């Protein structure tokens, strides 16, 4: 195992990694920008190195500064968390070239999976079903028009190098395709330095279901079940749960087997997520593989009891996978809400500022991952995620009630600061969501409703008849 790990990130995920390292007896190095000097991870780390000013390109995306900090402090490995450099194959290669272990897949695997067109081809070869569309990138408008005509509208034009919900344009009208194709290519060039795109059928009533996998460098792998991430706005997830609700057992078995097969087929190592779309007929289609720990990983940890960051560290250190598939025994239901410093009533615009009050919820089976505290200054320079509130229960109904109770307790106030908590409670109270029969269209439907109308309360828990014994799971 490593003696010292540098954490190449900030916020709640940096704290999450630090705590896992401390539990394993690993010393930690935090890197920070000038505006994060008083952050919790800087205070708790064994060592801390300032790597640049507030702008992420000069700090958390500055690969040279991060590697130099690791070398100066004698770190043996770098944990990238999620976002920033976590899926940057060049950064992983730079780490390796400087004698540092990058806690993630090999650079060549990351590069192949980061290219969505290449990833689609590799997964098709592994036998995973793809959405109808082009496997290779589309070089001309004429080719895009021909593919769209063959698969039918609506279609989505996607950047081959895209990620994080960027580089995608939905097209419902054939007349709009040429312009959408040209604009998506131009936007992809600016955002990713790569203008290649492909076209696939857009599934309008789809569920977004993903599978957590763990694979080592010795050819072993396990899956840790499913998560549903369909509650999302502009492809950014807001609410996640595990396991995915209302999934037929045969579909769950097929999708988890396909996910693990796909990951192993490309030599994946570490913790990864294989993402799928389920259409209204229940068929699943490969979407992408994420080569990092996910924001929503706590829900999987809550139902399996497996610490994913611990496993990442052991795998990166060369230890054979410590789990067999029979060791993975999910129990109960966990649901996570992301608390972002955004105003849902103003199209989710970020509302950074100082937190005068910050009191997270507590109680049985509630987990809060956060870097916030009273007096904390939410910076406009970074992602607006402030906290993740997770509830576990033996059944989904109680998990939803427990999470709603926790969100109602969460006290976050500051001048001009707004959060997504009220909107998250609207999601939890929605009838389709409560029934477990919802799709990626849920958020758009809620936003189209009158935001001034308060979210309905969760329905009353059925009373237990006199003399009856309550059901226990």
TrEMBL record:
It catalyses: N(6)-biotinyl-L-lysyl-[protein] + hydrogencarbonate + ATP = N(6)-carboxybiotinyl-L-lysyl-[protein] + ADP + phosphate + H(+). InterPro entries: ACC_Biotin_Carboxylase, ATP-grasp, BC-like_N, Biotin_carboxylation_dom, Biotin_COase_C, CPAse_ATP-bd, PreATP-grasp_dom_sf, Rudment_hybrid_motif. SMART domains: Biotin_carb_C (SM00878). Keywords: ATP-binding, Biotin, Ligase, Nucleotide-binding. The keyword Iron does not apply. Coiled coil: none annotated. The keyword Zinc-finger does not apply. Residues 1-448 form the Biotin carboxylation domain. Its EC number is 6.3.4.14. It is an enzyme of class 6 (ligase). This protein is a component of the acetyl coenzyme A carboxylase complex; first, biotin carboxylase catalyzes the carboxylation of the carrier protein and then the transcarboxylase transfers the carboxyl group to form malonyl-CoA. NCBIfam families: PRK08591.1. This is biotin carboxylase.
């Amino acid at each position: 195992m490593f003696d010292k790990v540098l954490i190449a990130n900030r916020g709640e995920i940096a704290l999450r990694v630090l705590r896992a390292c401390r539990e394993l007896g690993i010393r930690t190095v935090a890197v920070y920008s000038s505006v994060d000097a008083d952050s919790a991870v800087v205070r708790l780390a064994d060592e801390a190195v300032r790597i640049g000013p507030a702008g992420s390109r000069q700090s958390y995306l500055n690969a040279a500064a991060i590697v130099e900090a690791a070398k100066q402090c004698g770190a043996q490995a770098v944990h990238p968390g999620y976002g920033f450099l976590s899926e940057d194959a060049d950064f992983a290669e730079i780490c390796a070239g400087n004698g540092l272990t990058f806690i993630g897949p090999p650079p060549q695997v990351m590069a192949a999976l980061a290219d969505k067109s290449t990833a689609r081809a590799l997964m098709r070869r592994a036998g995973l079903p793809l959405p109808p569309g082009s496997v290779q990138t589309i070089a001309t408008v004429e080719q895009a028009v021909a593919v769209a005509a063959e698969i039918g509208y609506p279609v989505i034009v996607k950047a081959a190098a895209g990620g994080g919900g960027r580089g995608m344009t939905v097209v419902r009208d054939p007349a709009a395709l040429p312009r959408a194709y040209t604009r998506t290519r131009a936007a992809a060039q600016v955002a990713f330095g790569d203008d290649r795109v492909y076209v696939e059928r857009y599934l309008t009533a789809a569920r977004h279901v993903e599978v957590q996998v763990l694979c080592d460098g010795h050819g072993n792998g396990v899956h840790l079940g499913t998560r549903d991430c369909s509650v999302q706005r502009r492809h950014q997830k807001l609410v996640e749960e595990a396991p995915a609700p209302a999934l037929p057992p045969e579909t769950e078995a097929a999708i988890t087997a396909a996910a693990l097969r796909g990951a192993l087929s490309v030599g994946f190592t570490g913790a990864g997520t294989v993402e799928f779309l389920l259409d209204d007929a229940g068929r699943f289609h490969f979407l992408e593989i994420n080569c990092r720990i996910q924001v929503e990983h706590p829900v999987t940890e809550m139902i399996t009891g497996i610490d994913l960051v611990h496993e990442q560290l052991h795998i990166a250190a060369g230890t054979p996978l410590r789990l067999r598939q029979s060791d993975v025994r999910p129990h109960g239901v966990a649901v996570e809400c992301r608390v972002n410093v955004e105003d849902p009533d103003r199209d989710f615009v970020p509302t950074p500022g100082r937190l005068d009050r910050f009191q997270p919820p507590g109680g049985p089976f509630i987990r809060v991952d956060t870097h916030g505290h009273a007096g904390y200054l939410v910076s406009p320079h970074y992602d607006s995620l402030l906290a993740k509130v997770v509830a576990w229960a033996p059944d989904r109904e109680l998990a939803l009630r427990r999470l709603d109770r926790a969100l109602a307790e969460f006290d976050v106030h500051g001048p001009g600061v707004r959060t997504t908590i009220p909107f998250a409670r609207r999601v939890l109270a929605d009838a389709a969501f409560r029934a477990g029969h919802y799709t990626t269209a849920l958020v758009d439907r809620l936003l189209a409703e009158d935001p001034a109308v308060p979210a309905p309360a969760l329905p009353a828990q059925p009373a237990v008849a006199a003399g009856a014994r309550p059901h226990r799971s």
